[in-house]
Amino acid sequence: MRSLMLLAAAVGCAADPNIWPLPRQYTNGTVTVTVDPGLSFTGTQSADLTMAYGRYKEQLFPHTGAQAGSLKSCQVTVADGSAKLVLGADESYTLDVSATGCKITAKTQFGAYHAMETLSQLVVFNFDSDAYVVKDTPWSITDSPRFEHREVLLDTSRHFQPIASLKNIITSFTYAKINTVHWHIVDEQSFPYGSPTYPKLAKMGAYSNFERFTQQDVKDVVEYARQRGVRVVVEIDTPGHAASWCKGHPEICPSPTCLMPLNPATNATFDLIKGLFKDVQDATIDGIFHIGGDEVNTGCWTKSSSISAWLQQHNMTADQGYEYFVGRVTDIVLDLGMIPTAWDELWTHFGTKLDKKTIIHQWHNGTIAKEATAAGYRVVWSSEPTWYLDHLQYTWQVLYQGDPCVGLTDAECSLVIGGGGEMWGETVDSSDIQNTIWPKMAAIAERLWSDKSVTSIDEATPRIRYFRCLLNRRGIGAAPPSNKEARSAPPGPGSCFNQ
Question: Residues with Cβ < 8 Å from 439, sequence gap 6 or more?
Answer without folding.
Answer: 396, 464, 467, 468, 471, 478, 479, 481
